[in-house]
Design a protein that fits this description.
Helix 2 packs antiparallel against helix 4. By secondary structure, the chain is mainly α.
Amino acid sequence: MVKSREDVIAEFNEAVNMTVEELERWLEDPQSTKAGTGVGIESGNKIIEILRKNPDKDPEKYDEDDIEHMRKVVSYAKRHLAQEDHLKETKTREELENTKSTIRYVPYGLP
């Protein structure tokens, strides 16, 4: 079942808990490039665009492209949160902080 527009917006706003400025700093940080491909950087920039264009998070001001990307972000965050418990069981805190998959979580306020 496809999530409603309202659910996607609510879950996006919960998952992306960094400000535009924090996210920009993260994307400029060399550590963010350790997280993987340009797809993540591209997604981060799209998140910044969405946050800038609608700083008050008015649901009526999101267009379909915004919702489509928000849906991807929500899906990604949910999938990786499910994997987080396994990482916590198998790695020390220090190892966890330096794993590639954990570094990817930073823009989503994870872990």
